[in-house]
Amino acid sequence: MRRPAGAFLIVCAILAAGVVGLVVGRSNGPLPGWLDGVLPAAAKQSATPTEATGPVIYYRDPDGLPNYSPAPRKTSAGKDYLAVRASEDVSFEEKTPETTTAKSENPKSGDRGKIRYYRNPMGLPDTSPTPKKDSMGMDYLPVYEGDDDSSVRVSAGKIQKTGVQTEVAERRTLSTVVRAPGIVQEDERRKAVVSLRFEGFIDTVENVTTGSHIHKGQRLMRIYGPSLSSAAAEYLSALNARANSGISNEALKGARRRLENLGAPDGFIADIERTREIPVYVSWPAPQDGEIVERTAVNGMRAAPGDVLFRIADHQVVWVLVDVAERDLSLIEVGQKASVRLRAYPDRVFTGNVTLIYPHLMAETRTGRIRIELPNPDEVLRPDMYADVEIATGAEAPVVTVSSSAVIDSGERQIVLLDKGEGRFEPRAVKLGRRGAGRVEIKEGLAENDKVVVSANFLIDAESNLKAALSGLDSGEKSQ
């Protein structure tokens, strides 16, 4: 009899456990009172968490690391970042204790002073004299007396967790390097042609050809010219008459001037004065140092006045013509240093100066042309060589600069976040200047030694207080 009774009790216990489990499973609220004593652990069942609602504010690291992103991304292990929506705790401020509402009803309570009004947590231009919630259930934020309406308050814990970093605006000499392609050209002032001012006949041409290097005064050819011989005979007659005191000085000077007008070399005139004879041929000298880039003179040819017989170019100094983008023209000034690398000599750097900014823009390429002069003592720089040019621009005087990452550029306005201490940040509109080496010049809006935010800007920008401050910059004073 005892065994059937024991089995019956076991079956009853199993049935009772099943009923209790069914009740607990279907119940979302606290357990009935009669079960508290039987299942004390079940009585402590946690409430079902509510689903997040609202738009995605940012994305956070799935492993809980202080890494955030404004757009979807993955970790190095391939895990997706978790989306943080508006209904979740996206505020940088610590959660307000439950006693805050009670304290706010007494404006004079608390350490921060009297509450002036409450403003919309999402930055909308809406305020309230009493505590309230917005359409998403978020509490309006209190604005205390003495608070700057345009500032953002962030707790120290949130600053450390989100990796907010600041730096001091400081004066630096800002240099921007303008890079552009160029091409080597001859200096137009160092080119010359050899031609006659009279009709002549070339007796012989010296052993010089295209590419030969010549020196000033070196003989190029021997010429006979009837007009030149007639002028030489007249000058010799004037010299002989002058010796016999039969001609005036003015007549002698006139005879010599006719020879000079025909382009007679100084050596030819000196020979007449020294030998008192008329040379049959004239040795024609080179007008300058340089290389012969063109030769048309040949033995026995007839040369008409103005015919080009030789072209000579001096390559001791060359030009580099550079086409600079239109947006960079304002950075270029005459006298700036330029570094030139030739593709033929990639390991050598040639240094010159900007000597001219051409006044016309090339409409097809939207570029402006500048000219750089380079010394070429060993003549390795040859015309039509391609070159890569770097021009260091910028004023020598130091200017107020910050890191480029400190600027929030909306396209229409540029803003930096000014660190005012004690976790408060103020958006400040600035006017930018030159950029270079990862920094940007601040022409207006900041002073030297002002502290600005250089990292995690977008997280502070997502904070509702900053949105309200930026809205205030656009619409002026907020409605009370």
3D architecture notes:
It is rod-shaped, with a radius of gyration of 46 Å. The protein is an alpha+beta fold. The chain has 9 helices and 29 strands. The chain has helices spanning 2-26, 33-36, 99-105, 156-162, 226-243, 249-261, 266-275, 457-462, 464-475, and strands spanning 56-60, 68-69, 82-85, 115-119, 127-128, 141-144, 152-153, 165-168, 170-172, 176-186, 191-194, 200-205, 213-214, 219-224, 282-285, 290-295, 302-303, 310-313, 317-325, 337-342, 345-362, 367-375, 386-393, 399-403, 408-409, 414-421, 424-436, 439-444, 451-455. The protein has 6 domains: 2-44, no CATH class; 56-85, no CATH class; 104-149, no CATH class; 156-173 and 397-462, Beta Barrel (conserved putative lor/sdh protein from methanococcus maripaludis s2 fold), CATH 2.40.420; 178-187 and 315-393, Beta Barrel (Elongation Factor Tu (Ef-tu), domain 3); 196-306, no CATH class. A hairpin with a 2-residue loop joins strand 20 (337-342) and strand 21 (345-362). The strands form 7 sheets. Strands 7, 9, 24, 25, 26, 27 and 28 form a 7-stranded antiparallel beta sheet that branches. Helix 5 packs antiparallel against helix 6. The longest helix has 25 residues, at 2-26. The relative contact order is 0.15.
